[in-house]
């Protein structure tokens, strides 16, 4: 069944996971439908009541009360989705704003460095209750349209869209920064299995060459005492631990903080890859393997200055 998974992919990652067979079999199954309640337009109880009336079974996540999963594809056809009362979003995509909730509620100036199509931007705005200001930046002009649409649909009012290369972004200072970096997207294979057919290691090398200057620039934009979350939806150590290790080597004032989410299983970082041993602080970063929470794959690092 896993015959469409490239052998080189298996060789790379089966050595890193606790249960290779379960990891591979999970990759061959589509992720459950998931969404979050948009608190700018609805309450959790309101959505529960409405979906109960529709006869659509939904399951609330213990680790984040706004997050739900459902096996029913009709979620996307509901009035609540059309009106922006709920936002269909991958479970792992919700994690970066979740681990910076406290800071977001107090922040006056926030940067989403690679924002389109706006899932995390609008989630952060909801956490902030439209207070403060978010700069939602994206390099790809073609993706700005989706970002603008989602901001308007969700009732997000505290956000300004910019279309710039983050590496040349003006030197403002932000209280909180999210850098959900462009990546090889290996962790999205469960929702788009075509990724298997185009997967290659050259793409990994290409992406990490972009990610390294991005993380340095993002950190430079962070105000002293601020928090930055670096995240990707890939398994590659070169794009994850390797990029954070690059930050630590080039910005001595960068500090990592341990990440924990009650009720959600996070896995240990990779401490060494291809003969390169990473900084011991890298153990404070976290991975999400698909077979542990029935999700996509993800990586998280929480950085302070």
Automatic annotation (TrEMBL):
Enzyme Commission designation: 2.1.1.-
Gene Ontology MF: a single term: RNA binding
SUPFAM superfamilies: S-adenosyl-L-methionine-dependent methyltransferases
GO biological process terms on file: RNA methylation; RNA processing
Top EC group: transferase
Keywords: Cytoplasm, Methyltransferase, RNA-binding, S-adenosyl-L-methionine, Transferase
Keyword Transferase: yes
Chain segments annotated as transmembrane: none
Domain SAM-dependent MTase RsmB/NOP-type: 23-305
Family in the record: Belongs to the class I-like SAM-binding methyltransferase superfamily. RsmB/NOP family.
Name of the protein described by the UniProt record: tRNA (Cytosine(49)-C(5))-methyltransferase
């Amino acid at each position: 069944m896993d015959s469409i998974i490239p052998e080189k992919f298996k060789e790379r990652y089966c050595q890193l996971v606790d249960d290779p067979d379960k990891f591979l079999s999970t990759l061959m199954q589509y992720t459950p439908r998931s969404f979050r309640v948009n608190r700018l337009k609805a309450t959790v109880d309101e959505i529960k009541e409405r979906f109960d009336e529709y006869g659509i079974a939904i399951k609330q996540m213990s680790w984040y009360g706004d997050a739900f999963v459902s096996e029913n594809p009709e979620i996307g056809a509901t009035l609540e989705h059309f009106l922006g009362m709920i936002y269909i979003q991958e479970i792992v995509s919700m994690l970066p704003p979740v681990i910076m909730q406290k800071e977001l509620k107090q922040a006056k100036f926030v940067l989403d460095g690679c924002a389109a199509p706006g899932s995390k931007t609008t989630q952060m705005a909801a956490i902030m209750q439209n207070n403060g200001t978010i700069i939602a930046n994206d390099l790809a002009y073609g993706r700005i349209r989706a970002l603008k649409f989602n901001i308007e649909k969700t009732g997000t009012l505290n956000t300004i869209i910019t279309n710039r290369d983050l590496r040349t972004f003006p030197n403002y200072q932000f209280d909180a920064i999210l850098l959900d970096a462009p990546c090889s997207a290996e962790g999205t294979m469960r929702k788009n299995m075509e990724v298997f057919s185009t997967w290659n290691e050259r793409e990994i090398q290409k992406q990490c060459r972009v990610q390294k200057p991005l993380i340095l620039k993002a950190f430079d934009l962070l105000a002293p005492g601020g928090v930055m979350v670096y995240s990707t939806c890939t398994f590659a150590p070169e794009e994850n631990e390797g990029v954070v290790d690059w930050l630590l080597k080039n910005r001595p004032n960068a500090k990592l903080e341990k990440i924990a989410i009650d009720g959600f299983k996070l896995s240990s970082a990779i401490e060494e890859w291809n003969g390169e041993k990473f900084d011991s602080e890298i153990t404070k970063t976290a991975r999400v393997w698909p077979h542990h929470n029935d999700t996509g794959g993800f990586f998280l690092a929480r950085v302070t200055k």
